[in-house]
Specification:
Elements: E1 2-9, H1 15-23, E2 28-34, E3 37-43, H2 46-57, E4 65-73, H3 93-102, E5 117-119, E6 126-127, H4 133-145, E7 150-154, E8 157-163, E9 172-175, E10 185-186, H5 189-195, E11 202-207, H6 209-214, E12 221-224, H7 230-241, E13 246-254, E14 260-264, E15 267-272, H8 279-287, H9 291-302, E16 307-311, E17 319-322, E18 326-327, H10 337-344, H11 348-360, H12 375-385, H13 392-405, H14 426-438, H15 443-467, E19 473-477, H16 484-493, E20 497-498
């Protein structure tokens, strides 16, 4: 009997490929990859294949495995991949389940036991091994239950851990059990599945109403992450038995960003972390002086079609890049409020708008601390006009927060356009927002409309290029797309819009 599995795996790492071969090592099989598809055939008796399928059920799920089909086939030629695989250092179902069932200490499928050093004073670290594991675990439990801290170190940096004590100055919470999550957060089944995956991503979740009220919180969401190594897992497992629900985790030293995801409508977007892209590509990106451009180059190599890269960032100049060479976006923002108002009143309509606006709202009188000419800086200026915050950057962040928290189906139409020379007309955008302010439109509506209208602007550029046969796809990139309002509208309105497995920011 021969079974053929067709897996869709949307990352160019070799983790899933290794796992398949690990669990099929005692069988005759073939494994081929074509783009994002793995075609895996395996031969055996009905009983043997039933046993193999059960082993797949026990295999850790990956965030990059989107779907699979299985069918019986007749043709089969054994073909095994002979290559050097990357080492996967984290916890898997194999060794976590072994600990839960009988407290056995075993390695994961790659032969890794626990890639962790532990410290009780933050200075001297002890390497975890099978011989010292249980003694160090008991000592760590004793310290934590006495409301003190422990420290762990891995290849990504140094972390400080303590029991959750209503302090949200940490970087993320670590649930002691997956069942603890619903005590504090609203979490869909899809997000639960992602959190428990092989990659153990950071995911930002919304607090449930009861938890937020009981803890008097003035913010609505926070990052969480399940244990990714055997010691942290065992700590959480034992603490859960005593009704502790969360650990506070603060990252004190950052050698490598933790892997962070955003889940939206059955798609995943990698926000941070380069651990799970192609190893050679990662090494190349981090060897370059301009790491962001190297990141963009890798994204372009990922797709075979002619692409429009939508690189909208909080940290770099924005780029609308066509076929690796032509940047369509020419964006130059004002350095201060004097320059802003001068550009607004260049024509009679703008002059009249500014005069009426000054009668209802105080005008700005300040320098703008611009670092980059990008849409986020434009949103910071608009946030200042809306009086969202005195701080320039916080005003922009609060505009994004308003848009992301909005429940309205559509916002007001904010004007985005290029002038006759192809330059982006930022003054038109701000003028239209100011007009809605004069009309009494609420800030939330304006904020959401600002993001929604930007997505329409990107859609129009994409459609024009497609009609001219210059591109076939658009690819989302850049940290501005961390905004759910912008991301959701972009995926909804831009034809053939793609996501990659590469983080939005570096």
């Amino acid at each position: 009997m021969i079974l053929e599995f067709d897996f869709e795996y949307i990352s160019h790492n070799d983790i899933f490929e290794y796992l398949l071969q690990f669990y099929a090592k005692d069988y005759d099989y073939s494994l081929l990859r074509e783009d994002n598809q793995y075609i895996f055939k395996i031969k055996g008796s009905q009983t043997e294949l039933s046993t193999f399928c059960e082993s797949l059920n026990g295999m850790s799920n990956s965030v990059f495995l989107r779907k699979f089909d299985v069918k019986e086939v007749q043709d089969f030629t054994p073909l095994r991949q002979r290559k050097q695989y990357s080492l996967f250092q984290y916890l898997t179902h194999l060794n976590s389940n072994s600990y839960v069932q009988n407290q056995a200490l075993i390695e994961n499928e790659w032969g890794v036991f626990c890639e962790l050093d532990l410290s009780f004073d933050g200075n001297e670290f002890i390497k975890i091994n099978k011989e010292n594991f249980k003694n160090l675990l008991q000592e760590a439990l004793k310290i934590l239950k006495n409301q003190k801290k422990i420290w762990t170190k891995n290849h990504k940096g140094i972390y400080e851990l303590c029991l959750f004590n209503d302090d949200f100055t940490c970087d993320f919470l670590m649930p002691c059990d997956i069942k603890a999550i619903h005590s504090a957060f609203v979490c869909s089944n899809e997000n639960l599945k992602l959190l428990a995956s092989l990659e153990k991503p950071l995911i930002k979740l919304r607090f449930n109403a009861i938890f937020r009220k009981n803890h008097h919180l003035n913010f609505s969401d926070f990052r969480i992450k399940l244990a990714e190594d055997l010691l942290s897992f065992a700590l959480c497992h034992e603490l859960w038995k005593e009704d502790f629900k969360f650990l506070n985790v603060k990252k004190l030293q950052n050698k490598l960003d933790d892997f962070e995801l955003l889940s939206l409508e059955e798609q995943i977007l990698v926000l941070k972390g380069f651990e799970f892209i192609d190893t050679q590509a990662k090494e190349l990106i981090f060897s370059k002086e301009d790491k962001n451009f190297a990141r963009l180059s890798y994204i372009l190599s990922y797709f075979k079609q002619n692409a429009l890269i939508l690189e909208l960032s909080k940290d770099y100049e924005d780029i609308l890049l066509v076929n690796k060479e032509l940047n369509l976006l020419k964006l130059k923002l004002p350095k201060n409020s004097k320059e802003l108002y001068w550009d607004i009143k260049k024509d009679e309509v703008g002059a009249r708008l500014l005069e009426n606006f000054s009668k209802e709202f105080p005008l700005l009188d300040e320098e703008f601390p611009l670092v980059n000419n990008n849409f986020f800086s434009l949103f910071c200026i608009l946030g200042k006009i809306l009086k969202l915050d005195e701080d320039f950057l916080k005003a922009g962040e609060k505009l994004l927060e308003l848009a992301d928290g909005s429940k309205i189906p559509r916002g007001v139409k904010i004007d985005y356009r290029l002038d006759e020379k192809g330059n982006f007309d930022y003054a038109r955008t701000l003028r239209s927002a100011m007009s809605f302010m004069l009309a009494g439109v609420e800030n939330t509506n304006i904020a959401y409309g600002t993001l929604e209208s930007l997505a329409y602007f990107l859609r129009d550029i994409n459609d024009d290029l497609r009609d001219k046969k210059q591109i076939e796809i658009a690819v989302i990139s850049g940290s501005l797309f961390e905004s759910k309002a912008l991301l959701k509208n972009s995926l909804k309105h831009i034809r053939n819009c793609k996501l990659s497995d590469v983080a939005l920011r570096i």
